[in-house]
Amino acid sequence: MSAPLLLSNIPTVSDLYKDGQLQPAPTDSADASLPTPSSALNSKVSLIRASITTLATTSIVNAANNSLLGGGGVDGAIHSAAGYSLYEECKTLDGCDTGSAKITSGYALPCNYIIHAVGPVYHRAGRVSADYPAELLRSCYKTSLDLAAEKGGSIAFSCLSTGIYGYPSGEAAEVAGKEVRRWLEEDEKREGGGRLERVVFCCFEMKDVRAYTEWLPKIFPPTAKELPAGKPATEAGPGTGQSSEAVSEDTTTNQPSLKKPKAESEAVDEGWEPIEKPSETISDKTTDISEEGEKVEAPDLAGSDGEKVEKPEPRDVLEEAAVSGKVLPANTLGKDW
């Protein structure tokens, strides 16, 4: 496993604005008016592209299934890196309801705790009502933040439900960002508030990075002091069609670095520095990990950001496996985060 990535080396939203690597939302956006800029909030929120198994935060949030016994994607990577003791503890938890979360020790991971949050299967929850997927996802973030606050320190979120559970990355980033801001604001008002030092949004797939790069400036807009000299707040940013810089990790120094994507005619992912991956390796052709710890090949992705996944089996078969934790043959496994 690569060296742990310390919290002090993870840039905050405030840092990204000051470096000119996160652009303010355009003022002519059709969205509702932006919330009041707050340097205090912007200094408590981070965005990074990395494997969450490398983050030395107090807690990390796993995109788990209802069984809590491991699966593919980030869930499998976390179970593999943490070791078999995590599986043994999870067996004692009697699963977890969708929209909720449970906490365990971090075992061999650099974090102290793992919070296992079960996000919704998007179109299945949508059959209940149009708002139900967001309600369940919002509950995942709130419950995770409440559990993390009991331990204090910092928390890092993986991108919940945006893989085989089918939650669109943009909609998920909006729900996550708004719930985190609401929770932080409420926590500051309570007696003994300020329980969390930092909330980190940790992305692995490019589609999720792009979603957070678009939504964070709309939810955590910059103050005037956070903008680089000569860059007014009205400068066009994500969502305008112009290129914006994005977040990656410099694996030679294990320090966060930022890299501009190439022109639109070139592949976006080629403009990123490769990140060092944990010992279980998550390669360009993703290796999923079953409950038994055996590695099985996932289907090829149409681009390394995983935006298009071939699903040789019907959606309901994959959903059933994702929710129940059942391990499917190699040719039917997709990412479950």
TrEMBL record:
<feature type="domain" description="Macro">
    <location>
        <begin position="32"/>
        <end position="220"/>
    </location>
</feature>
<feature type="compositionally biased region" description="Basic and acidic residues">
    <location>
        <begin position="274"/>
        <end position="298"/>
    </location>
</feature>
<feature type="compositionally biased region" description="Basic and acidic residues">
    <location>
        <begin position="305"/>
        <end position="318"/>
    </location>
</feature>
<dbReference type="InterPro" id="IPR043472">
    <property type="entry name" value="Macro_dom-like"/>
</dbReference>
<protein>
    <recommendedName>
        <fullName>Macro domain-containing protein</fullName>
    </recommendedName>
</protein>
<feature type="compositionally biased region" description="Polar residues">
    <location>
        <begin position="241"/>
        <end position="257"/>
    </location>
</feature>
<feature type="region of interest" description="Disordered">
    <location>
        <begin position="223"/>
        <end position="337"/>
    </location>
</feature>
<dbReference type="InterPro" id="IPR002589">
    <property type="entry name" value="Macro_dom"/>
</dbReference>
<dbReference type="Pfam" id="PF01661">
    <property type="entry name" value="Macro"/>
</dbReference>
